Amino acid sequence: MPPHGNSSFADDSIEGKGYDAKLIKRLLHYVKPHRKLVFLAMFFMLITSGVELLLPYITKQGIDKYLARLYQVYTDTPASCDSLMAMEPAEGDFIFLASDSLLIRKASLDTMDPADAHLLATGGHLAAETFYLFPADQYQGETGRLQNDYWLVPERDLGKIPVEKLMTIRAKDVSGITRLALIFLGLLVISIFAGYGHVMTLVVAGQRSMFDVRTELFNHIQTLSLNFFSKNPVGRLVTRVSNDVEALNEMFSAVLVNLVKDVLLIAGTITILLIMDWKLALISLSVLPVFTLASILFRRKARTIYRKVRKHLAELNSSIAEDVSGVKVVQIFGQEKNRRGRYFEINDNYYKISMKQLYVFGVFRPIINIIAQVGTAIVLIYGGLSTLSGALTLGALVAFISYVRQMFKPISDMSEKYNIMQSAMASSERIFGILDTEPKIVQSSDAIPPQKLRGEVAFQDVNFGYDPDTPVLREINFGIEPGKSIALVGPTGAGKTSIISLLTRFWDVDTGKILLDGTDIRDHSVATLRNNTSIVLQDAFIFSRSVADNIRLSSDLTMEEIRSASDMVQATGFIDKLPNGFNTVMAERGATLSTGQKQLICFARALAHDPRILILDEATSNVDPTTEQLIQRAIETLMKGRTSIIVAHRLSTIQKCDEILVIDAGKIMERGSHQELLARRGIYYNLYLLQWGNGK
Ligand code: M5T
Ligand code: MG
Fold this sequence. Notes:
Elements: H1 7-11, H2 21-31, H3 35-67, E1 71-75, H4 78-86, E2 94-98, E3 101-105, H5 108-111, H6 114-122, E4 126-135, E5 145-147, E6 150-154, H7 163-169, H8 171-223, H9 226-231, H10 234-276, H11 278-284, H12 288-325, H13 327-332, H14 336-388, H15 394-435, E7 457-464, E8 473-480, E9 485-489, H16 496-503, E10 511-516, E11 519-520, H17 526-532, E12 533-536, H18 547-552, H19 559-568, H20 572-577, H21 595-608, E13 613-617, H22 625-639, E14 643-647, H23 651-656, E15 659-664, E16 667-672, H24 674-680, H25 683-692
Helix pairs in contact: 3-8, 3-10, 3-15, 8-10, 10-11, 10-15, 11-14, 12-14, 12-15, 14-15, 19-21, 21-22
C-alpha cells in the first residue's frame, strides 16, 4: 500500500471538545434562515415530551380511581370523624359508615395534604385491610360484610365473585377505565403525529442548512488559489465536503432533534418522581450514576472501535481497488504471492478489529441492560413494600416503574450524543478552516475595469518558486508583440508550465512583473485576464458532460459557433462518429476518448472562446501520425492572429513560432529562431538531435 493510501483518513481525527461555543455560534448562523422550522420543531417536541410524561400518570389514575378502587376503614371518636368528613375531599373519597367510622379511599391519601395523610396513616385509627365497595342494593354475596348501605369485599376475596356479576356492578369503573384508555390512545396518536412533525421539521431544517454549508464550501474552494490545492490533496477535500458536512448533519438529526427533548424528559421525570415519593425516588435514582458511567464508557469504547473498523475497512477496500486495477503489473512481475500476503494481513486486521467490536457490544450492552433492570427491581422491592404498608398506591407504583424505565434510554443516548457532538465540532472546525482560507490571488480593489486587450505580453525580471526556499524560475525576461508567438522548449521540469501558470495568475510572481498591454497583470481585473486568454493544458481536461458543453463551458455560444470551432480544429470528424454526436455525454475525465481526441476538444474549446492571447501546453504523449497532423493543423489555426505562448514539443510547432526560448533549470538559456539556435550548437541543438534527429 502506498504511503498516501489513506492519508485522508489518518488526517481526519475526530477527537476534541464536544461543545465549543464559538463553533456553535457560527453553525447557528446557517440555521438562522430556517429558524421558523426549528421553532415549529420545538413546539412539536414540547407536545411529545408532555405526552410521554403524562402517559404513566394516566395509567396511575386508571389503576387508583377505577381498577384498584380500594377503601380502608377509619374508626375514631364521632367528633374527629365529623371533622374529617368536613374536609370535603373529592367525591367518593370519604364515605360515611357510622357516627364513629368512615371509609377512606386509599388513593385519596396521595392527593391530600401530606401532613394530613401522615396523621391519618400513623394515628392508629386506620385499619390496614383494604376493601372493594359495592352498593348493597346491587350486590350481596357470600364474601364480605354489609355495613350501612355498602357491601364491603376484602381485596383478596374479589376473585371469588363471578366475572359477569363484577362487570355489571362495577359498570362505573368499566366506563371510567374505557374513557381513560381512549384518552390514552388519543394522546398516543397526537404524540405520534407531533413526533413525526418534530423529526421532519428539524431534519428538513438540518438538510437545508447543510445544503447551504456545502454550497458555500464548494463555491469557496473554487475561488482558492493553487497553493491551497497543492497543500490539500483532492482526497482530503472530498472528505471535507462530504464526510465533514455529513458529521454536521448527523449532529442535526441525532443530537439537536432529541437532545432538548431528552433533557426535558429526564428533568421532568425526576421532578415527577420526587413529587410522587421523594424517598422512593432517591432510592430508585441510586443506580443512575452507575448506569450513566457504564453508558459513557460503552459509547466511548464503541465509537473508538467503530472508527478503527472504518479505517481498516477503508484500507481493505483501497487494497482491493489498487490490486485489481494494477492486476496487469502484478501478473507481469509475478507479484501474486507477495500481494496475497499483504492482503491476508489487511484482511486479518479487519477480522480482528471486527471481532473486538462484537466483543465490546456483547459485553457492554447486557451490562447496561442489567443495571437498568436492577434499577427497576429496586423500585419493585421498595415500592412494593410501601404499597403493602399502604404508603403508596398501586397506581403510583406502576407509574413509578414506568417513569424509571422511561428515563434510562435518554440517559444512555446522551453519551452517544456527546460523541456525535465531538465529531461534529471537529468537522465544523475543519470546514471553517477551509472557509477562512483567503484566496491568495485576489483582484486589487482599484483594478482596471475589464477591457479588450491588444495582446502584448512581457515578463520583466520574474522570479518565482512554489515554496519560497526553492526557486523554480529565475530572472525570466521576454516580450511578445500582439499577434506574435513564442515557443518555450526545454527538458522536463525546466519550468515551462510554471511560466504559463504565472501568466494565467494561477500563481503570482515573487519578484519582477508580468505586463499585459503594458500594465501589470495584478492591476488588471481578473475578468480582463480570463476573457482575453484561453489556455489548453498539458493534461486535457474533459468534464463528464456533453461534448458541446465541454466546448461551450458556461458561455452562451450557439451550436453553430461550437460546430465551426470544432470544424476549424478538425474535431468534427470524430465527434460526429460518437453515438450522439455533439450531445454525447463524456465519461469521467473523458476516459472513452483517445489522448489526441481530448486535445482536439480542448482546442475547439479554446478557439470557440476566441482569445487575444493563446496559451498552450503541448502534450508530450505520442499520438498516431494522422492525429498528429490533425493536432498540428489545429494548433496553427489556433495561433493565427493571436498572441501565442506555447510550450512546444513538436518541431513543426516550434518552427512556426516567431521566437524560441530555451528554458533549463528555471532560466532562459538561449533564444532566437530555429536556424539561429541550431547554429549556436547549444542546448537547443542537442535537444534537436536527441528528440527530432531521427527525422521526425
Ligand atoms: C518546474 C516544480 C517541479 C519542477 C519545477 C507544478 C509544480 C512544479 N513544481 C513544484 O514544486 N510544484 C508544483 O506545483 O517546479 O516544473 P514545471 O514548470 O511544471 O516543469 P515543465 O513544465 O518544464 O516540465 P514538463 O515535464 O511539463 O516538460 O522542478 O518539481
Ligand atoms: Mg509542463
